[in-house]
Please model this.
Amino acid sequence: MTPDLLARLREQVKSNPQTVTEVIDQIKAPDAAELINELSLEDAAMTLMMFPIEEAVAIFNEPSCERRHEIMEILESDRAAEVLKKISSDERSHVIRRLTPEGRAKLVPTLPENLQAEMRMLLQFPPTTAGGIMSTEYMHLSPDSSVSEAINHVRANSRQRLHIYSCYVLDDESRLLGAISLRDLVIASPGKAVQDVMRKYPISVHCLDDQEKVARILAKYNLLAVPVVDDSKKVLGFVTIDDALDVIIEEHTEDVHKLGGMQALEEPYLASSVFDMVKKRVGWLIVLFLGEMLTANALGYFEEELDKALVLALFVPLIVSSGGNSGSQATSLIIRAIALNEAKPSDWWRVMSREIASGLVLGGVLGGLGFLRIAIVSMFSTTYGEYWFFIAITLFFTLVGVVLLGTLAGSMLPFLLKRIGFDPAAASAPFVATLVDVAGLILYFTLASLILKGRLL
Model:
């Protein structure tokens, strides 16, 4: 759909939803989901009622369609039941998980008994595991079937499957024996047995594997889908590459939020209430506030030095920002490397050696700039007094130390959290910066006491 048509439809839907039927055939499901997101719940439900059931199901199958559970609760009962029955099993479980108790009590009984049993099975898995995001509509084949029989079976049952990337070959107890792609099935000799053309020992994931692990496996082995099995290797469902993309986006968003010093939002920003945003942010803000109180205590501890040499206070913002910035950079690099599996906890020593070298060089550059600034200013003014050289030396070594400290703290803290079982992204940049602020001030005034003793102090 062209951008002009999309803009016209957007205005048309907002001003007069009843006229959508005039151009409904031109609307693709992703575009329709985008339009639905911009409407009030009432208008969104009214608009969905105008779509043929197959198009409404396609819209609800779009991960970008927000507030599906809220829309489902105010849709007319017959339409809601029909949509809920026909959407894919993973999206159905996602919607049902988020329904209110009243909505769940109203809608779940409308499902056929087999789908209710399926939902009970899916809802027993945590939502961030392979079992929680899998689809159950997989295509299975018997190992003794011929290729031609298998093709006929796929053709006869394809309407009930939203995605058919591969067929899974199962024994009589639904245990995974092998897999065969549609391409391999089509080009195989019709008279051959499926077990002779299938791929043995296919890649699979356990139903309790974390969704991030599943996404990494799909990416590592270039798979379009991966079967999900239980402890006995019985196939329960499969996870597709589009599910993995949703996981990657979700986890990346969560990591970015944590790096900013807050908990991840569960809803899109504009769909989140002010209360939810405050709740997600206030915890970390209180922790960081308490941490910054240590900075104030550090300044108070060196109050006598500041009274004797007020010039030292001029460089406090420079020092704390340099340490915090270097720590934030290191944290971002390491968390990203861990997320991409480029760095493992066992690599901490290699990372430390690299960060020590980087910290010394970066600290030397910033320290040299600080020294040069004081030297140039002192050529034309008496701002730093007769002991400007010693002040410059103090600033130089402080910047080297605080930048080195920032890079080490920022790079090692994610490994420490990973080692003890916490999310490395919790080593947020503001948290690292707060730690380095306190340590940097202590280092600064300690060096000043040593270098300037008998001069300014």
Q: What stands out?
A: The longest strand covers residues 176-181. The chain has three domains: 3-124, 139-240, 269-451. The mean pLDDT is 83. The first helix runs from residue 3 to 15.
